[in-house]
Design goal:
Strand content: 5-15%
Number of strands: 12
Order of helices and strands: HHHHEHEEHEHEHEHEHEHEHHEHHEE
Number of helices: 15
Distance between the termini: 33 Å
Oligomer: single chain
CATH architecture of the largest domain: 3-Layer(aba) Sandwich
Radius of gyration: 21 Å
CATH topology of the largest domain: Rossmann fold
Number of domains: 3
CATH class of the largest domain: Alpha Beta
Structural class: alpha/beta
Helix content: 40-55%
Strand order of the largest sheet: 1-2-6-5-4-3-7-8-9
Shape: globular
Length: 375
Amino acid sequence: MEPEAGVGRHLDDRQRLAWLRLIRTENVGPSSFRALINRFGSAEAALAELPELARKGGARYIKISSQEDAEMEMEAVSRMGACFIALGEREYPPLLAAANYPPPLIAAKGNLELLRQPMVAMVGARNASLAGIKMAERLAREIGGQNYVIASGLARGIDAAAHHGSLETGTVGVLAGGLGKPYPPENRPLFQQISDTGVVLSEMPFGWAPRARDFPRRNRIVAGLSYGLLVVEAADRSGSLISARLANEMGRLVFAIPGSPLDPRAAGTNKLLKQGAILVTNADDVLEALSPIVGKPFTTDGIEEDTAELSDAPAPDDDERARVLEALGPTPVLVDEIIRHTGMHPARAHLIVLELDLAGRIERHSGGAVSLLTS
């Protein structure tokens, strides 16, 4: 990704601070971070170019994270006994690194060696039934006993049960907010237990209180960490089904426990089974399906990352920017479709999309699609 942080490399303090400033800058997400490093070679160089790029995209101003703010966040993380892990460093979870646009930096506390072990994600309803909670705890304990780490989202219900069941064998809790704002409040004791014996991690700023839009971001990390994702109970149109979709897009196995058609908390799991999820009634169903694939690399399900080489591409001109804007609308389209429609060189089209992204004029969607924001 970046010469200073290839696989097995270690960022020095100056580089890590620049990475943190870049990912904390307004309108910079994992996708634009990757493109900026591709274009400029380092985070420090990218930071210097951000104002001009945003201007070309149509913004008058972009709020760049200050060195002081980044240093304060690093100090807060350090005081907690946590650390920042950069993509490409040894401690970074290998399956998450192979996912589409993984977070460039994660803050983590606990036994970091667990992040390199095979993981199974478990998710489900917050208002889980007693039977669902018992099932989640039992499965987490039995799967964890077979040298798997259990990953979940530290939510109420099934998530909490999965963590409780795997505290002794290894569990990873992924937060929707920052490490300094564990949510929900009643799970703070569980958060502390996991940070003592397992790992808690987040891609969000240290003091960030989670918003509704942050939970799908957390879900993508839970799915990306794991070889397979098990949904224990889930209503239709729930966050757990978003996790299952993301896991499927990443090429992970999706498991589901069947339930009564009369229980709305089983509507989502039964729907997943109709769509081809692996039916689970005991831990062996999960273990047998995972056995042939553990240790093998994953490929995404028809989703290609942006591999355009941007470092040597000439800057696009205003006519090309107008053509890309004309091709965009509120309906998501793939950047490859824009390239085919305009006949533009791929790198120049990707640079224009990057400019628009930094200017806050587009929204990125799963699968590499983008849409024009209308307000």
